[in-house]
Design brief:
Largest sheet: 6 strands, antiparallel
Oligomer: single chain
Helix content: 10-25%
Shape: globular
Number of strands: 12
Order of helices and strands: HEEEEEEEEEEEE
Number of helices: 1
Mean pLDDT: 78
Structural class: mainly beta
């Protein structure tokens, strides 16, 4: 009597592969890609205008931010991306009436989709284009798809100069005997 186990084993393997493979493919398709492999991320940009008289502006404001790998995100005319106004005293959204961004004593939040940063946001620059002054309090960038990539608060509390990029860079600081050494960023 001769036994042939090859046939049933092959059939069993084919059935097992046929049953198990779709489950593994489904799990692989649900797995999230690393952010740097995604095409775009959504950024929530929070900006506070101080309560100083004359701090508001109707000028065009552009913003650029990024990480220490030079993944630069540029938003021209941030004013046109306005999403909502936040109440500084209570964490509720005030969106009942049409609003103009960058009014005195307000916190505005904007949303922008662009390429993803790979590391936490560590620099932020703003450019004010127009004739009036604007006194910025703070700004913050939150990456909605990856909160670990969000920035800390960037504090300004001063009037921004017009027609030049002005900001804060906390990337790649190196200590020297003479103090901190910063890499210089040059923007056009």
């Amino acid at each position: 009597m001769k036994y042939n186990f090859g046939g049933p084993i092959i059939v069993f393997l084919i059935v097992a592969i046929h049953v198990m493979l779709p489950k593994h493919l489904a799990m692989a398709s649900r797995a999230t890609l690393p952010l740097h492999l995604k095409r775009n991320c959504t950024y929530a940009i929070t900006v506070q205008t101080t309560c100083t008289k004359g701090a508001e502006t109707s000028n065009h404001v552009s913003i650029r931010f990024g990480d220490s790998n030079s993944n630069d995100v540029l938003v021209h005319r941030l004013n046109s991306k306005h999403v909502k106004r936040l109440d500084p005293l209570e964490p509720q959204v005030l969106d009942d009436v049409p609003i103009k961004p960058f009014e005195v004593c307000t916190i505005d939040q904007f949303e922008h989709r662009s390429k993803c940063v790979e590391l936490p946001v560590c620099y932020l620059y703003l450019k004010l284009t127009g004739d009036d002054d604007w006194r910025l309090g703070f700004a913050q960038i939150r990456v909605l798809e990856g909160p670990h990539l969000s920035s800390n608060y960037f504090y300004f509390r001063r009037y921004l100069p017009r027609n030049v990029w002005h900001g804060v860079d906390v990337c790649d600081n190196k200590g020297t005997p003479f103090g901190l050494k910063h890499k210089r960023k040059v923007f056009n």
